[in-house]
Amino acid sequence: MEVVKDRVAIVSGACDAVGAAISTRLAQKGATVIVSDSDPAKVDALLEEIQAADGKALGMTVDAADPAQVKAFVAKTIADLGKVDILVNNVDTQNGTPIQEVSDALWQAGLGANLNAVFYFCRELVPHMRANQYGRIITIGNLEYMGLPGKSNYAAVKSAIFGLTRALALESARDDVTVNCVAKGDIASADMSPEAIEKQAKGIPVKRLGTPEDVARTVGFFASDTSKYITGQTFFVCGGKSAYFSMSI
Q1: Which residues are designated catalytic?
Q2: Among 7, 131, 162, 215, fewest CB within 10 Å belongs to which?
Q3: For residue 154, what are the domain limits?
Q4: Has residue 248 been placed in a domain?
Q5: Could you give the 3-state DSSP secondary structure of residue 140?
């Protein structure tokens, strides 16, 4: 059972389908959710959806790759609400490209969106959570961190999250702060045709694509009090696809 009632949660990158599902679920379970993303119109739209379902939510436009903006956002949240108990890092830019086509700008953009954004939020909130003797940090990764051809730049950055998760977990374990990663597999999106979904599902052991809600349920567990003995882990939400890899750890 997910126990997040009266907790304060920040969801970074909240406005894609997975982030919206996570934000909505945490709010439904009783947390106050601060949704953050770079598009103010999308933030407002998500807030309306959550609040229409009687969830508690606030919103702020933040470029997660800008350390000054992240620092100011976290400071304001703590000043206004007194604490942050849960951080969900969901910022994700899937820019995997064959290495001969990876420009310096594309490489740096991937670092900014997919790694720096996670690091900046963790740098601000890990000390706060340790001081409060409570915290749950969940980063949304991707099965592709284990490496696929033509996506070396994306895999490299996502692999870094694996190490960051483990290191932060060990730094914070004695303070009731857990740090885990949820590696998502193939998730259906609204712009996919039924034919595309059916074709992609054939390569997955459970023969279906995942949904944003599949990811959100897993995040809800890691964000809750019931997961307090689990830290430093990468958990796959992939319909069994990770079993095809030789090192699905």
Answers
A1: 154
A2: 131
A3: 8-241
A4: no
A5: strand
Going across the sheet that includes 177-184, the strands are: 56-61, 32-37, 8-12, 86-89, 135-142, 177-184, 234-237
Tokens representing 29? 């379970």
Written as six digits, the tokens of 16 are 């894609």
Long-range contacts of 193-201 (CB under 8 A, 24+ apart): none
pLDDT tens readout for residues 30-44 = 999 999 999 999 999
The whole-model pTM stands at: 0.93
Q: Is the pLDDT of residue 243 over 70?
A: yes
Total tally of structural domains belonging to the chain: 1
Query: What are the CA-CA distances from residue 57 to residues 169, 171, 194, 225 (Å)?
Result: 27, 30, 33, 20
Residue 246: pLDDT band (50, 70, 90) is low
pLDDT at 180 exceeding the cut of 90: yes
Residue 95 resides in a domain? yes
Residue at 142 is within a domain = yes
pLDDT at 249 over 70: no
Is 106 in a helix, a strand, or coil? Answer: helix
Parallel/antiparallel/unpaired status of strands 234-237 and 8-12: unpaired
Spatial distance between the Cα atoms of 24 and 44, rounded to a whole number of angstroms: 14
Residue listed under structure tokens 């949820």: 182
Structure tokens, 117: 């954004």
Q: What is the pLDDT of residue 142?
A: 87
**Sole residue written with tokens 């409570």:** 134
How confident is the model at residue 244, as a pLDDT?
Answer: 78
Between the two ends of the chain, the Cα-to-Cα distance in Å is 25
CA distance 114 to 93: 6
User: Which pLDDT score, from 0 to 100, does residue 1 have?
Assistant: 63
Identify the residue with better confidence: 8 or 92. Answer: 8
Do the Cβ atoms of 231 and 195 come closer than 8 Å? no
